[in-house]
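TA notes, week 10

Several of you asked for a full example with nothing omitted. So below is the full record: structure tokens for the whole chain, then the designed sequence directly under it. When grading your own attempts, check the secondary structure regions first.
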């Protein structure tokens, strides 16, 4: 993988980390069960994407 490609993947990783942090903060601020459930699903989605990105950066399959 070229340096340019690695930089793009690193940007994607940082973007996902930012989204995860924002979603976690939003979940902490609201008590509505429906809203928390929706945000929990979003959090799961972004955490799974983040795991895949880390595997890619580590050279995993």
């Amino acid at each position: 993988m070229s340096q340019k490609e690695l930089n793009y993947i690193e940007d994607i990783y940082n973007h996902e980390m930012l989204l995860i942090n924002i979603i976690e903060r939003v979940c902490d601020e609201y008590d509505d069960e429906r809203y928390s459930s929706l945000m929990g699903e979003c959090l799961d989605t972004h955490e799974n994407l983040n795991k895949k990105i880390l595997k890619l950066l580590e050279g995993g399959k």
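The radius of gyration is 14 Å. Use that as a sanity check on your answer.
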